Please model this.
Amino acid sequence: MKGSALASRVLWVELNHGEAGNARLRAACSPELVMAIDAGIQKARWYPFGQFVELNEAIDESFGVGDLELVRTLGRFGADASLTTIYRLFYKVGSVHWILARAVRLWSAHYDSGYLELVAREPHRAVARVCGFATPHRIHCLSVEGWCERSLELSAGGTARVVETRCRTRGDDCCEYACSWQ
Model:
């Protein structure tokens, strides 16, 4: 996956926990991940999906309560980190459904596996599915949930809710997200 997701997590630690937090995070990571962090995560570079999972686990264990709920927050932060900068103009001119359609098209720019599809579009509601992702993991699902929710808030200018209704980690054939906004 692209480094932008990893970079946003490292930035979250820096902004919320400072240098002491960085040291704590690095102590919880494998030597390979520490090398990547020390070299500076490059947003446009491809990184192993396992490093994304490891980084989220280390952050959740170090700064959360170990239930992975912090991963949703990290997904939301990732949306803020990328969507309020490079894609900011899209959120000013595009509707929520237009933004969701762009997310479908941009999936392969961030992942080298699977695809995102919209299976329902209604006023203030949509259903999105992640299909064919090679290595489904609960951390990825929670991250996508958080990212989608914040992305909808940014594009709708109001509250949003995203709930994963189906999940490959629970034996379903895809991960499905019911999205609603006001």
